[in-house]
Fold:
Amino acid sequence: MPYLFIGFLSGFACLMDEIIWARILSLVFGSTIDANTVIISAFMLGLGLGGIYLGKRADSVKDPVGLLTLIQFGTGLGSLIILLIFPLLPRIYSFIVKILGGGSSILIFILSFVLMLIPTFLMGGTLPLISKIYIKERQKIAIGFSQLYALNTLGGVIGAGIVGYFLIRAIGIRSSQLLAILINLGCGFFLLGRRIPLRLKTNLVKDSINSGDFRNNPDSNYFLSYNRFYPLIAGLIGFVSLGYEIFWIRTLSIFLANASYTFTTILIIYLLGIVSGSFFFYKRLSKLNQIKLLFVAQIATGCYVLITAFFLNNLPGLLFPIRSILEKPFYRIFLTPGLLSFLIVFIPTFLMGITFPLLCTIWTKNLDILGNGIGRIYFANTVGSVTGSLGVGFLLLPLFGVVRGIILFALLNLIIGVLIVKVEKQKKNLKFGYLLSGIMVILSIFGMKNNLILPPSIYRSPERADRVLYYKETKDGTVIVNEDRNTGVKTCYVNNSAVIGSTYDAIKVVKMMGHLPFLFNPKAKDVLVIGFGVGVTTSAIARHNVREIDCVEICPGVREASKYFSNINDFIFNNPKVKFIPGDGRNFLQLTDKKYDIISCDPTHPSLGSGNLYTKEYFLLCKGHLKENGVVCQYLPLHRLSIIEFKSLVKTFASVFSYTTIWLGYSHGILIGTENFKKIDFPSLKVLPDDLLKDPYWLAVSLILDREKSIQFSQEAEINTDDRPLVEFFTPVSLRRENWELIIRSLLALRIEPEKAIENIENLEKLKRYVAGQEFFISGLIYQNRSQKEKMIEEFEKALKVNPENLEIKLILENELR
Structure:
C-alpha cells in the first residue's frame, strides 16, 4: 500500500508540474497553438525516454526502492532548478532568437525538452519502477498494474484540479511549483526508511517460461516478432488518443466559454475516464480473455467516437432541457463543460483506461522483465502520443477539419482492432471486425458531408435568422462569420469567442481605441496593434498620418474573415501601411527591439484566455517599447469581473504608467497610459477623422478618471501579476450580472470634471448638459442590464431632455421605441 500511495503522489505532482510549466513556458514562447503543442510534446517525450531507460534499469538494479528514492529526490531537485531558471528564460530565448535570426517551433521544442528533461525523464521511470516493486507474483500483473495505473492517474486528476481551480489564484504559480517539489522530496524522505532490496521469487519466472508460453522466452523467434508488434500497437493507440484529445478540445472550445477553468474541466473528465476504465479493468475484467478484450476496446472506441462525430454539432441541444439552470453563470462555466465533456470524452477515455493496462499485461508476463516491458510499452505509447499531438495540431486538423479528422481517427481505431485479432489469428473476431469496419466506413462517407461545428448561439435562438458567411478551421482556431438576417448584425467568432459584432456600441469602442491615443500623441508615426480582430481599430489608426502599423494577431485566420466587415474597416486588409504579423503579441514584444509611438491592445476578456495581456509584466513590456511621448491604449472590460477584480486591473495599469486615464465607451472601458502628462486640447476632439466620433462633447465626458482618481479608486486591490493572475482565475462572484452596474456606478462616483484634463473647452454649460445626460443614459443602460425596458426608456428620455444636443441618445432612443 505505501507504494500505491507513492504512485498516487507522483501522479499528483506530475500533473501539477505539467500545468505549471506549460503555463510559464507559454509566457516565454507565446500562447499560440504551435507553442503549446510543442511544449506538451517535449514534456511527454521526456516521460517516454525515462520510461524505457529506467524501466530496463528496474529489472537489473539490486535495490529498486533505493532507485525510486533517488528518482523522487531527483525530480524534486530538477524541478527546483527549472524554477530558478525560469526568470532568466525570456532573456535566454531572446538572445538565441537574435543569433538565429528568428524563432521557430523546432527551437521551442528543443529548449522546452532540454529544460524539462531531467525531471520528466525521472517522472517517466516512476511507473515501471513502482510496478517492479509492488507486483511480486506473475498472476497478479494485470490486477497490480491496473490498480497502480489507476491510482497514479487519479493523483493526476486531483493535482490538475487543485492547481487549475484553486492554487494558482490562491498562492500563485511559484508557490504551487514549490508545493509539487515538496511532494516529490517528501516521497523521497519517506522511501529512505524503506530501502530493502527487492528479491523476486525465481521459481515464478521459471514457471512462466517452462509453461509453454513462448512470449516470455527472450530466446524464441515468436518473442522477437511479438516484441515488435505490441509496442507498435501501443504507439498507434497513443497516436489516436492524443489526436482525439486535440480534436475534442477544439470541438469543446467552440461549444464552451474559453475560460481557463473550462480546459481544466475537460482535462479532468479526460483523466477521470482513464481512471474509471483502469479501476473497472482491475475489479471486473482482469481475468477475461485479454486479446479479445483489447479487440473489443478498440472496436468500441472507434464506433462510439464515429457515432458522436455524426451528431457533434447537435450535442449542445441535449442540454436544452436544463437551459434554465445553465443560464446561471456559475453553472454555465462549470457544469456545461463537465456535461458536454462527459458526453464526448468519457466513454472513449474509459476504454483507453482499460487498454493501457491490457497492453502492459499482454506483453509483460515475466517478472524478470516487468520493468522493461512496462517501460517499452509506456515509451511506445508516449512516442505515439507525441506524434499524434504534433501531427494533428500542425497538419491533420487544418487539412481535414475537426469532424473529418475525428472520423478518420475512429476508423484507425477499428483498423487497430482488426490488426490485433489478425495477428493473434482469432478468425471469428476477425470476421466480425471486418464486417463492423465495413459498415462504419460506409456510414463515415455520409458523416464527412456535415463538417461544420458552430457556437451554440448560432441557429439555436428562435429570435434570430442566422446564416454562416464564412467558416474556416485553422490550426489556431475555427474562424466563423455569422449574420443575423433579421437585424443585419454580423459577428466574427474565433471558436466560441466573439471577436467583434457589428452592433453600434461594439464598433464605437474599438474605433475609440484607434483614435484616442492620438489625442495624447498627435504626431505618432509608428504604431503597434495587438489583436487585429476584424481590423476596425487598425482602420481607425490608419486614418491618421502614420508611417507604419505593425499588427500582431494570434489567430491569423481572422484576416480573411475581416473582408466581410469592409464597410466598417475601410478595406484595411489591403492597406499597404499595415504589416500583418501572425503570432502572440506579448511574445512579439519580448523578441523585438523596435519602439513605437502608440501601442493599442484589444484582447478578449482576461477570463477567456488572454489573461497574460492584463498583468503588470505585460504592461511593463509595453512601456519598455514606447518612444518618447509614447502612449499605450488597453481595452478594459466592465463585465464578468467582481468589483475588486476590476480595481485590480486598474491598479495594475496605474502602477506602471505615470499618467493613466479611464474612458467609457458605453458598456466598455478603455485605459490610456503615458509617461508625459499634458492636457488634451478640446479642438483636437473636433477633428478626429471619424463620423462616429464627431461629437467632441460626447468624447469629453467619456473621460471618467485620471491617474489620481484611478489610484484612489483601486487602492485596496492587489496587483494582477503573471505569478498570481487574479483576474484570469476568477471567482463565482465575478459572474454576477449586477457586477457591471456596481463597477460603472463606482467609476461615476469618483469621476473627474472634464476640464481638469481637457483645456480650451468652448462651452462649459453645454459640457455640463452632456455630463447630466450621460448619467441618465448610463442609468438607462443599467435598467437595460436588468431587463427593465420601460425604466430604461424613461431614463433615456430624461437624458435627451437635459441633453437635447446629443444626437446619439436620440438615435438609440428611437431604435428602442421601434
